[in-house]
Amino acid sequence: MKYELYYWSHIQGRGEFVRLALEQAGVAYVDVAREPEAHGMGVAAIRRLLADETLTTPPYAPPVLRAGKRLIAQTANILLFLGARHGLAPKDEAGRLWAHQLQLTVTDFVVHIHDSHHPIAGSLYYEEQLPEAKRRAQKFHVDRLPKFLNYFERVLRCNPHGGKYMVGARLSYVDLSMFQLIAGLHYAFPRAMKALAPSLPLLVALHARVAKLPRIKAYLKSKRRLPFNQLGIFRRYAELDLQPASKVTQSKSKSRTNTGAVRAPSSRVKAKKK
Ligand SMILES: N[C@@H](CCC(=O)N[C@@H](CS)C(=O)NCC(=O)O)C(=O)O
Questions:
Q1: What percent of the chain stands above pLDDT 90?
Q2: What's the confidence (pLDDT) of residue 245?
Q3: If pLDDT is split at 50, 70 and 90, which confidence band does 249 have?
Q4: Which domains can be identified in the chain, with CATH numbers?
Q5: What's the pTM?
Q6: CA–centroid distance, residue 62 to ligand 1 (Å)
Q7: Is the dihedral of CA 259, 264, 265, 271 positive or negative?
């Protein structure tokens, strides 16, 4: 059986987390939107799928994976399915849930990354929300980016099987997603990632190891791997990176965000007033 992946043709986006799993699994798949419309595929096939009133389990948004009669959407859900089928997740229930929990955390992080350049609406151009994006990005560098990455680093550090894999003692789809996050964040926020990298040794090493896996290495060199660009989740806008004039200030006490999250004083960044 050949899988069919329905995802936008011009970006890595959320589809890339699925592509990496399919590539590492070594299974055959068709990237439907990247095939010709003349063959019933192309982006038009995604639109037809989303509008199909005959579906009893309609997907809300891509990525969507067709596996025989099954139609599975939501990135983390697709990976839950592929992980169990292709040895990219633990076999026991506790391990599978742990991998899924981590992938759902990746899903949350991806929303924050996307919203750093589109804080008002995905339907508006970046230029139409530039002041808000600048403000949002500065907060992202203080509250979100270090918190998520330090959390993932801690998961590696606390893995009782050593700091090599996110889950247990074997490669899982979560490791592939970590690779994608680190690669994308380096593209989007080179300055911020340079500053954070020394405190993330295990994640940095995991990224390098995944890039060298023979199947992933071959995929990264192939035309199937689209380059990062200014349309996807990870976008490079110099004005949204950690600003050189920003000062890391030490405050005496811990402060709370309005979401109740404790913010470490050392991660506070004071934006320069214009
Ligand atoms: N939580 C979903 C989000 C899916 C999603 O937002 N897909 C985007 C492309 S990356 C989309 O096409 N959204 C259309 C929309 O939200 O209207 C997932 O992780 O798969």
A1: 88
A2: 64
A3: very low
A4: 3-85 (3.40.30.10), 93-270 (1.20.1050.10)
A5: 0.90
A6: 6
A7: negative
